[in-house]
Amino acid sequence: MLSHEDLPGFQPLNTPGGQACIKEFIEQIGGVDLVFLDNVMSLAPGEMKDEEAWRRTEPLVLWFTKQAIGQIWVHHTGHDVSHGYGTKTREWKMDTVLHLTEEKRADTDLSFTLEFKKARERTPATRFDFQDVKIALVFDEWRYEITNAARPAKVSPLTGKALNALTNVLAGDQAVMLPGNRRAAHRDHWQAECGRLGLIDLSKPHSARTLFNKFRRELVTANRIACEEHFSWMIR
Q1: Parallel, antiparallel, or unpaired: how do β-strands 70-74 and 34-38 relate?
Q2: What is the pLDDT of residues 121-140, one digit of tens each?
Q3: I need a labelling partner for 172 at 20 to 30 A (CA). Which of 1, 38, 102, 126 fits?
């Protein structure tokens, strides 16, 4: 934790002096992986409706990126709570924009809906990781509820057997753990299990690959599985 009161002569982060101070501090402590900057109005003051105040901050934004330092900038809404206050240009270079809207609950004062206004990493295979969600802190316990979760769709009987093959791999020693506590299967192991069950003919590589990819696409479209590169996992 670092407060601007801890830095004598602290200057705003949209000035060369303020940016130099932050860079020096990070170097002194041996580097960081992620920074939270709370908040834009306090750390990079100026007319929030005008892009100039934020434009002067962009050298620091780009420096964080070049150093492979993740950055989360906290900002506020105005009277219109549907978007961040002021110029939208501050979102242009960001990969993700999260928007929190107050959600009234009788049992807590800390409750909100989280939605992704922008998500560059969202793909057809990962779109369910970016669903709107209601989050609340109730009696010191975080609770959440997916607001519009897509229901799994029906799949053909043969594709259903391919899903069973994936389940077999996920239950065995060949499964791996991905970030986010996701138990996943490599496509080679899943494809081999499909062959063992007689769903595809591995002696015919081209037709086997074509049919396996059909299973995979159908299961993703039906919201049964998610995939990332060579790995697949179940959607609960």
Answers
A1: parallel
A2: 887 667 777 888 899 999 88
A3: 126
pLDDT at 35: 97
φ, ψ (nearest 5 deg) of residue 14: -100, 25
Q: Is the pTM of this model over 0.70?
A: no
Query: How does strand 141-146 pair with strand 176-178?
Result: unpaired
Quick one: three-class SS letters along the chain? CCCHHHCCCCCCCCCHHHHHHHHHHHHHCCCCCEEEEECHHHHCCCCCCCHHHHHCCHHHHHHHHHCCCEEEEECCECCCCCCECCCHHHHCCCCEEEEEEECCECCECCEEEEEEEEECCCCCCCHHHHCCEEEEEECCEEEEEECCCCCCCCCCHHHHHHHHHHHHHHHCCCCEEECCCEEEEEHHHHHHHHHHCCCCCCCCHHHHHHHHHHHHHHHHHCCCEEEECCEEEECC
CB 208 within 8 A of CB 200: yes
Contacts within 8 Å (CB) and 24+ apart, 198-203: 199/158, 199/161, 199/162, 199/165
Contacts of 16 (CB under 8 A, 6+ apart): none
Going by C-alpha positions, the residue among 86, 99, 11, 22 that lies closest to residue 55 is: 86
> Six-digit token pair at 129?
């990781």
The CATH number of domain 157-234 is 3.30.530: no
Domain edges within the chain: 1-94, 98-149, 157-234
